[in-house]
Recover the amino acids of this structure.
């Protein structure tokens, strides 16, 4: 191995994933901004064709990584000791590891919790874990259907335990990962989410959307808890408080349920569904809104509260996510099971009974503390540690 470390960066999430994809792009932007002054060569890969074009549009060279059923079969058979000895005589390397050996890759960084990581057996890797929500809330269709719970358990039990490092979003996530899966604390690094760099750097465009509305940027999954928000607006409507709401995001199977509830509650004139928008359009909606609301059952952290702070907007956030979570210092908390509680908090804001200036300042302090440089330092420290260790076999 040369004096530099060759790191494969895998972008294995799709743009329609939403916040997770934005977090991956923010990480890439950080890596690109730091690479000139390091001993690390970052080489980008993806098995998703659209991601190749997306990164190249940003002047970042990205290699398409070929996946085949034959290679998948070889990888799975090699995990069985009976077949491993036979296949080792034919294939010196796992065929997927072998693809990366052509680039002299020393380490892989997965930017998302992808099952793609299970294909690699020889090359060490770092993996990013966004959440453990399948364990926190097992009841949702997106967890129970299509063996999703079992798939996530496989990822956490088989893939995470072989990782050199695991990046998680918060201290409480690290604590739960240790408790649930017995992973060594030294292998888990806390790298708090960043507000989407693609959204926060966009400038205001020509849009006639009026202000004073609530904004919830979230895809239409059942766990996003849109129903609670609609019920809260209905309670306010009963008190002659007509609050407008804008929803954005792609349909993940629950949009029709939301539309039905809007009609049932008579909220057609108050609620707009704008679909999946471009970054600058999301940015505009943040800038013009009265407040951001995030009633999601999944946590403990999410991007919208951070982006709300960036745009100096208050954010309503579930109190159930605030255990050992610094978000509690800059959000307006509510019970994500109580439409009455949320409606009361919304009314307080619109009636100027909440002074959120201190919350905004606390949020800015948080963003200053956990900024791009902090995130880079977590990555850099892990790379330095691996670089020193791998000298013993390279």
């Amino acid at each position: 191995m040369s004096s530099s470390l060759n790191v494969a960066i895998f972008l294995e999430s799709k743009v329609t994933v939403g916040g997770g994809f934005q977090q991956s792009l923010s990480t890439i932007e950080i890596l690109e901004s730091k690479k000139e002054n390091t001993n690390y060569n970052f080489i980008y890969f993806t098995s998703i064709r659209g991601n190749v074009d997306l990164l190249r549009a940003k002047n970042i060279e990205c290699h398409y990584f070929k996946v085949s059923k034959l290679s998948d079969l070889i990888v799975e058979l090699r995990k069985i000791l009976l077949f491993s000895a036979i296949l080792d005589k034919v294939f010196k390397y796992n065929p997927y590891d072998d693809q990366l050996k052509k680039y002299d890759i020393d380490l892989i960084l997965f930017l998302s919790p992808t099952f793609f990581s299970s294909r690699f057996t020889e090359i060490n890797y770092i993996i990013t874990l966004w959440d453990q929500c399948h364990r926190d809330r097992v009841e949702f269709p997106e967890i129970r259907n299509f063996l999703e719970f079992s798939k996530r358990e496989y990822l956490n039990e088989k893939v995470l335990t072989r990782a050199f490092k695991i990046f998680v979003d918060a201290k409480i996530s690290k604590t739960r990962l240790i408790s649930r899966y017995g992973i060594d604390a030294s292998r888990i690094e806390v790298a708090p989410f960043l507000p989407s760099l693609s959204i926060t750097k966009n400038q205001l465009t020509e849009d006639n959307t009026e202000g004073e509305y609530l904004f919830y940027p979230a895809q239409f999954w059942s766990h996003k808890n849109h129903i609670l928000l609609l019920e809260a607006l209905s309670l306010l409507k009963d008190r002659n408080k007509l609050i407008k709401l804008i929803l954005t995001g792609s349909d993940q199977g629950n949009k029709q349920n939301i539309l039905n509830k809007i009609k049932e509650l008579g909220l057609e004139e108050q609620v707009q569904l704008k679909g999946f928008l471009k970054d600058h359009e999301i940015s505009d909606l943040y800038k013009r809104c009265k407040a951001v609301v995030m009633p999601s059952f999944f946590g403990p952290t999410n991007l919208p509260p951070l982006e709300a702070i960036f745009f100096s907007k208050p954010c309503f956030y579930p109190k159930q996510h605030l255990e050992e979570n610094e978000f509690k210092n800059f959000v307006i908390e509510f019970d994500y099971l109580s439409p009455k509680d949320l409606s009361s908090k919304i009314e307080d804001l619109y009636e100027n009974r909440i002074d959120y200036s201190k919350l905004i300042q606390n949020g800015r302090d948080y963003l200053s503390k956990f900024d791009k440089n902090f995130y880079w330092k977590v990555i850099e420290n892990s790379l330095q540690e691996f670089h020193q260790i791998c000298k013993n076999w390279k």
Observations:
- The first strand starts at residue 5 and ends at 10.
- Residues 135 and 180 are 9 Å apart (CA to CA).
